[in-house]
Description:
- The protein is α/β, with parallel strands linked by helices.
- It is 28% helix and 25% strand.
- Helix 1 links the parallel strand 1 (3-8) and strand 2 (46-51).
Amino acid sequence: xxxxxxxxxxxxxxxxxxxxxxxxxxxxxxxxxxxxxxxxxxxxxxxxxxxxxxxxxxxxxxxxxxxxxxxxxxxxxxxxxxxxxxxxxxxxxxxxxxxxxxxxxxxxxxxxxxxxxxxxxxxxxxxxxxxxxxxxxxxxxxxxxxxxxxxxxxxxxxx
Length: 159
């Protein structure tokens, strides 16, 4: 068993003042930071996923502060940042190749948004044969709307 940490889209636009604020992002960031510290102290591989949208998108716009990974978890030189353009961290990226190079079989996943990029990536990883541990307190989402009804973020997260 070879394990790695996958941190998905912990970028400034998801925090207070960002273009797509999430539910309790600072609390989630603290939990992610604790997990990251554990992986670093134990010399386990860490991969950061950074979503970059087209320039006409509403958030994660190229060359903006909002697209940057949050400074409290700045990747080290030894940690890879994988750029993606879709919710699936494996689609059209080098992630699978980089995990295979290290013989990774187990992924510990955290990040933002639970209902979109985290969910899509976890499903893809399982489909590809990885054992996945999703740490619920290291993920967050936002309120959603369905058929005119608001679904609170804490319910979306629980689901």
